[in-house]
Design the sequence.
């Protein structure tokens, strides 16, 4: 017995908040990539806007479908992601990384899709099995479901996206009923293994971790980004230097300021006021996500909500933490704010799913 | 339940972010704002050019020209320094490895700038300026470069500039000096530093991450230093230096109107231009280690026994105290026994019976032994002080020495010995412990010539067109008849057929003067000649001092003659 599709249950706030975040983002992208004399339709902001339009389209498509019907798509989508993650290695490298598949006018980033499809696949898996009754082979399947894309993404290299997968996986495991004790043990083991893993990182990734510990070790090289970003954020003060008025931004002192370090632009030009607004919006989305998680009676749905909320929240925390120098620079985009089509579309898809979960809540 | 726990954990993360935001933007806001201002605003110092130094006819003795330097800001050059250095090396025609090496060596903090190439050609500066887009962090600075056209001839007079020492940086920071400023180190450059120095201004510009100019924010115009006009005649100054050649010594010429110095030469000399450039400074070591002391301005910093030129003081001391008179004569057998010791006259044969004017003419030592003993050391010392000996003359050049006039008390304190008659005899002929500087000799002879005007000699006449010296002579009280007696003696020394200074004569000019050949402790004596002309209305006083130059009556008097001849030619006399 299911309730009919009804937009009465459409959570307008949950749709409005991403739009507000996006609006802040697009203004910052405009400010960060402003070149005088450039026609508006050629700006990055305009491109981002088009991606958002596509994202919104997906939202309206996905809310119309009963999410249980998505179950059939889970595994094809998962294997498509694995396939695309493999294809990436045969694509030309950009900035020393194989992260993108050029598709005509734009570059598609399979790791974004992979995050999404892994959450779907895990939800599917967790709804089909119980931790207590699982044979060993199934455990192996479960871990390799995460490990394979994790390693592929790590190899690209895209440390940030790969690392996001781990806590998302843990959160979903925990919700599933996995003993907290084992998760803690697992995390401790990972910490002990980290010096070994460090050895396998690329040089630039090592540098970033080292400068995280001491940014002034190499102020002109790897530490430059974080120093400049911190200066930008701190100098914003309470109310910022005004739109297009951030000197760190306009004079190009912040590197990667329209992608990973976009928050530095917001914090510089909008100050604490804008930062807190962004932070609050993200928190409200995450909060709503977990509420949906606990209110969705079926396991698939609640796992999905948990995975998505954890992913969005973590991305926000990690991105902000890294621009502020609290976390190492690992390259995580700020959802809906950082420039990048794949990220925007996938994030909107995730939001769409959350909306869907709320609308199609099964009634028993 | 579980979902709430995960959400709670997330909230923790958000709160940490929030706390840190508040910490950075509110609590640390000012700190980061300062950093961001430092990032974008660069102050380009505009140095105010140093004032020029001109001689009395407006000829340049020191001036500044614009020189171009190429500097780099490591913060902006970052990893592109290697290709940039290669490009710069191509333009300058030097080895790029050397540039990189000096970059690495001088890179102290990454907010500072590094001076890579100094005093490059204008064309090179333009070439670099055109390619600045490809040279992140590089820029061309201009700075005034000091030039001294007279080179060695006025080195001690004009001086030179040098970088500040650590302690000076601390002391002078309050006065607006910057660490890279140079200070006057010698001569006028030093003593008139505060006038010559330009007030540096600054240009505040906004730059982007590669150090490229976005716009100018503000400017404070630099102020030029003040120009100095000297009493020096550059032609005479050069001319005298040529006369001196390599002979160690000092020559001073002073006008007797106000005490303005016409020329002040010291030899051996040095080229101050070497100190002005970085390359040149590598060569100055030879000056500093040269044992003949080319850096010492002997005219004001050299202290020597005056020898017979001091006899005029001895005579005045005795005359003023009524110990001798116009008619007094002494017999000179070539020596005199004082306290059981034989004090020789310079002429072994003796001068026979000598009057005061004859004694001056022949520089008879025995006459002045007697005179000195009659006057006594205290009276002689009193006259010394009256004529400014044993204290600096106050010339506006740095580090003047004050000489030494001994006294009974002084001897007791320094040598723990009593004062003997023989000491008085030695003092009477300008030997023994007595030491004076050539500039003191000049002031002394000037006072003789003007009958009592003890000038404070000076080399700077006008600062920025404003006259700074007037009426700066102190009087020396001597009875007129005694002035005349001494001046008559000085006249005889040059103009008597047997005068010791007769080589100083110049046809058509009545010169008065006194020679001196002072014991130097070496084989050759120090040669002195002090004199003035014309006798009736003295206008110019001259001191020639030649260190171990032999007899004053020969080398020194000859040089004085050339100088008087030149002065007559140039219508000073």
Sequence:
């Amino acid at each position: 017995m299911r309730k009919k599709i009804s937009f009465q249950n459409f959570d307008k706030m949950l749709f409005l908040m991403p739009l507000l975040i996006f609006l802040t983002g697009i203004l910052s992208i405009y400010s960060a990539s402003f070149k005088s004399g450039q026609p508006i339709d050629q700006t990055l902001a305009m491109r981002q806007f088009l991606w958002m339009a596509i994202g919104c389209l997906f939202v309206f498509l996905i809310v119309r479908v009963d999410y249980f019907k998505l179950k059939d798509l889970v595994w094809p989508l998962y294997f498509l992601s694995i396939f695309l993650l493999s294809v990436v290695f045969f694509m030309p490298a950009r900035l020393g990384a194989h992260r993108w598949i050029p598709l005509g006018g734009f570059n598609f980033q399979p790791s974004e899709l992979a995050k999404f499809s892994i959450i779907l696949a895990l939800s599917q898996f967790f709804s089909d099995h119980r931790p207590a009754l699982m044979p060993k082979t199934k455990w192996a399947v479960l871990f390799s479901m995460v490990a394979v894309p994790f390693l592929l993404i790590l190899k690209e290299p895209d440390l940030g996206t790969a690392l996001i997968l781990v806590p998302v996986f843990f959160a979903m495991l925990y919700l599933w009923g996995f003993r907290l004790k084992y998760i803690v043990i697992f995390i401790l083991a990972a910490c002990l293994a980290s010096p070994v893993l460090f050895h396998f990182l690329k040089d630039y990734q090592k540098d970033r971790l080292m400068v995280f510990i001491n940014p002034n070790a190499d102020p002109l090289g790897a530490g430059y980004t974080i120093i400049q970003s911190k200066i930008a954020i701190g100098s914003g003060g309470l109310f910022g230097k005004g739109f297009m008025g951030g000197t760190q931004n306009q004079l190009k002192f912040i590197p990667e300021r329209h992608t990973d370090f976009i928050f530095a632009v917001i914090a510089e030009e909008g100050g604490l006021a804008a930062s807190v607004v962004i932070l609050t919006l993200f928190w409200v989305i995450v909060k709503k996500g977990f509420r949906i998680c606990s209110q969705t009676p079926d396991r698939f749905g609640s796992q999905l909500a948990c995975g998505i909320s954890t992913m969005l929240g973590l991305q926000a925390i990690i991105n902000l933490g890294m621009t502020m120098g609290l976390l190492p620079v690992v390259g995580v985009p700020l959802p809906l704010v950082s420039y990048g089509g794949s990220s925007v579309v996938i994030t909107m898809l995730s939001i769409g799913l959350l909306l869907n979960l709320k609308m199609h809540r099964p009634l028993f | 339940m579980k979902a709430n726990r995960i959400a709670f954990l997330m909230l923790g993360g958000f709160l940490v972010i929030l706390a840190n935001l508040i910490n950075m933007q509110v609590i640390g806001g000012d700190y980061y704002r300062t950093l961001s201002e430092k990032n974008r605003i660069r102050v380009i110092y505009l140095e105010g050019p140093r004032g020029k130094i001109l001689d009395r006819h407006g000829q340049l003795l020191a001036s500044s020209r614009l020189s171009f330097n190429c500097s780099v800001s490591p913060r902006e050059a970052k990893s592109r320094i290697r290709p940039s250095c290669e490009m710069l090396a191509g333009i300058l025609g030097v080895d790029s490895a050397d540039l990189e090496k000096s970059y690495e060596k001088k890179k102290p903090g990454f907010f500072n700038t590094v001076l890579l190439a100094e005093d490059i050609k204008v064309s090179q500066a333009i070439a670099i300026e055109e390619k600045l887009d490809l040279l992140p962090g590089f820029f061309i600075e201009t700075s005034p470069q000091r030039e001294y056209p007279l080179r060695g001839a006025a080195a001690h007079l004009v001086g030179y500039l040098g970088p500040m020492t650590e302690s000076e940086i601390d002391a002078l920071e309050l006065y607006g000096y910057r660490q890279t400023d140079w200070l006057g180190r010698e001569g006028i450059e030093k003593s008139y530093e505060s006038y010559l120095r330009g007030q540096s201004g600054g240009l505040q510009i906004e730059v982007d991450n590669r150090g490229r100019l976005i716009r100018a924010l503000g400017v404070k115009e630099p102020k030029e230093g003040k120009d100095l006009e000297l009493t020096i005649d550059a032609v005479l100054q050069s001319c005298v230096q040529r006369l001196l050649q390599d002979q160690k010594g000092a020559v001073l010429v002073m006008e007797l109107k106000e005490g303005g110095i016409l020329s002040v030469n010291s030899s051996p000399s040095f080229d101050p231009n070497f100190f002005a450039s970085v390359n040149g400074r590598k060569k100055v070591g030879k000056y500093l280690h040269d044992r003949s002391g080319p850096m010492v301005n002997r005219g004001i910093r050299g202290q020597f026994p005056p020898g017979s030129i001091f006899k005029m003081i001895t005579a005045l001391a005795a005359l003023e105290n009524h110990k001798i008179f116009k008619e007094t004569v002494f017999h000179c057998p070539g020596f005199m026994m004082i306290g059981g010791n034989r004090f020789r006259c310079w002429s072994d044969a003796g001068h026979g019976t000598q009057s005061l004017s004859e004694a001056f003419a022949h520089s008879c030592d025995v006459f002045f032994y007697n005179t000195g003993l009659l006057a006594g050391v205290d009276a002689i010392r009193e006259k010394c002080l009256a004529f400014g000996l044993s204290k600096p003359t106050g010339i506006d050049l740095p580090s003047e020495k004050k000489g030494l006039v001994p006294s009974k008390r002084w001897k007791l304190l320094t040598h723990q010995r009593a004062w003997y008659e023989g000491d008085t005899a030695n003092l009477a002929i300008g030997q023994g412990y007595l030491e004076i500087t050539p500039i003191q000799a000049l002031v002394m002879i000037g006072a003789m010539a003007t009958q009592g005007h003890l000038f404070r000699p000076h080399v700077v006449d006008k600062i920025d067109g404003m006259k700074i010296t007037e009426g700066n002579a102190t009087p020396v009280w001597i009875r007129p008849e005694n002035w005349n007696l001494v001046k008559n003696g000085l006249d005889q020394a040059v103009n008597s057929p047997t005068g010791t200074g007769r080589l100083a004569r110049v046809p058509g000019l009545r010169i008065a003067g006194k020679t001196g050949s002072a014991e130097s402790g070496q084989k050759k004596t120090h040669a002195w000649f002090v004199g003035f002309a014309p006798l009736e209305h003295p206008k110019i006083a001259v001191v020639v001092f030649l260190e171990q130059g032999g007899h004053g009556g020969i080398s020194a008097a000859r040089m004085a003659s050339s100088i008087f001849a030149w002065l007559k030619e140039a219508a000073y006399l």
Summary: The longest helix of chain A spans residues 262-295. Chain A touches chain B through 50 residues (CB under 8 Å). Chain A is about 65% helix and 0% strand.
